[in-house]
Amino acid sequence: MNDIWAGIAAAIRLILTADADLVEISLRSLQVTLSALAIACLIALPLGTFLAIQRFRFRRGVIAVLNALMGLPPVVVGLVVYILLSRAGPFGVLNLLFTPTAMVIAQVIIITPLIASITHQAMRDLWAEYHDLLISLNTGKLQRVATLIRDGRRSLMTAALAGFGRAIGEVGAIMIVGGNIEHHTRVLTTAIALETGRGDFALALGLGFVLIGLALGVNLLTHWLGRTEVEGRW
Amino acid sequence: MVSLFPLTLTEGLVRRRGQVIMGPVSLTVEGRGLTVLMGPNGAGKSTLLKALHGIERLSAGRLRHGCPSDQSHAAQAFVFQTPVVLRRSVAANLAYPLKLHGVGRAERARLIEDWSARIRLSDRLDQPAARLSGGERQKLATARALIRSPQLLFLDEPTANLDGRSTREIEDLLRAARDGGTRIVMATHDFAQARRLADDAWFMMNGRIVETGPSPQFFDTPARSETRAFLRGDILE
Ligand SMILES: Nc1ncnc2c1ncn2[C@@H]1O[C@H](COP(=O)(O)OP(=O)(O)OP(=O)(O)O)[C@@H](O)[C@H]1O
Ligand SMILES: [Mg+2]
């Protein structure tokens, strides 16, 4: 028991003194995840909205594929990205394996289906609600999309937050493609795994607290977004 | 602005999943008055209103306006059976059709003030419309439809589920609009309301118009036995 309390105390000290390693790792985590999130949103938000309001031939198929991709085990994504980026793979010449970019790629693949799927559901419901009125007012396609995005902005934010939450806590894929290299590709989750294995509970716990803080923050933000919907703020 | 009348539906027919749910119906709507559309549930009233509004795809037949079709939309409005309320403030709901048509800020403010007062929601303009009661939503949707003074307004059971007072308020709005020159076609199940408002009435059954006539003759001495039975409250098969 004493070891654990000592570990927690040391972890809190690391956080309060803004330990250099801890800060560096946390910032890298944020950088990788936010980059992945930005790219994933650029793909997923328009894709989800498009799937919600546009009828086309393979729409159901695309939605089914999207939902299936959502269930992909991250470790398998890591494996596939590893093979693609490895020296012998088709993108080997880019020398991306074991770089933050490789981690971003893996995370984009993991969270894009999730964000697109949540966006699709939310936009589909909103479109069902608005459909008659927007048709009756003879709105053009762009006006419709603009209206849906404006009035569905909380759902879109919620989708993005879900993507962030999934990406920041992901360990399997980025361990494989990033390699957990110190000062280069080490992020919160991979560092925790490593330090735990090495028995350095102080650093592991400190990093764990940061991760929990981020996850909690995202949850609070999601909850708050839901509330502003009812209360009608922004 | 050009007149969209006469509006004519010729042999209009709507088929869904192989079933004819409306038609064939031929009708002409001229520029004045208030028409009440009656008929049992599932008769095709909503479908006919949407067809006349031009938002129901016709499987056969034609819809024509007195003006080019691309200009006809701007002069019409529709209040749906379940009113659509945008997830915005009451004021933003009223502003929405105005913005779409490029009405300037000052004019928008004036119209919003005017119409919110008429539906007695002036003090709730900044509240989210989602928080309104069913009756208040219905009034908001009606005001939003009337705010651009359409030449032609369709309403699909605009006072279903409303209490006496809200019903009277909406009826007052509709009378004022009609007297101001808006042509109104509305579906209703409320016989008393139909008598109060109608200049003429259409009776619909099984997707077809069975009888039309001016009020009050339509209600007092209907020509067809089905209409008589319906107005008496008999169950129609
Ligand atoms: N998309 C659709 N596919 C199949 N059938 C439909 C569709 N839309 C409507 N119908 C059918 O068409 C018929 C007419 O529907 P409509 O909504 O026009 O009736 P209504 O007279 O407005 O009835 P109510 O008084 O209940 O509002 C109904 O039997 C309905 O089930
Ligand atoms: Mg109906």
TrEMBL record, chain A:
UniProtKB keywords: Membrane, Transmembrane, Transmembrane helix, Transport
Membrane topology: Multi-pass membrane protein
Membrane-traversing stretches: 30-53, 65-85, 97-116, 159-181, 201-225
Pfam family, one: BPD_transp_1
Keyword Disulfide bond: no
Residue span(s) of domain ABC transmembrane type-1: 26-222
GO cellular component terms given for this protein: plasma membrane
SUPFAM superfamilies, per database record: MetI-like
The family this protein is said to belong to: Belongs to the binding-protein-dependent transport system permease family.
Protein name: Tungstate transport system permease protein
UniProtKB/TrEMBL annotation, chain B:
Molecular-function annotations in GO: ATP binding; ATP hydrolysis activity
PROSITE patterns cross-referenced by the UniProt entry: ABC_TRANSPORTER_2
Entry keyword set: ATP-binding, Nucleotide-binding
One Pfam family recorded for the sequence: ABC_tran
InterPro entries the record matches: AAA+_ATPase (IPR003593), ABC_transporter-like_ATP-bd (IPR003439), Molybdenum_import_ModC (IPR050334), P-loop_NTPase (IPR027417)
Residues in ABC transporter domain copies: 2-231
Classification via PANTHER family: ABC TRANSPORTER I FAMILY MEMBER 10
The protein's name in its UniProt record: Tungstate transport system ATP-binding protein
Source species: Palleronia salina
Lineage: Bacteria, Pseudomonadati, Pseudomonadota, Alphaproteobacteria, Rhodobacterales
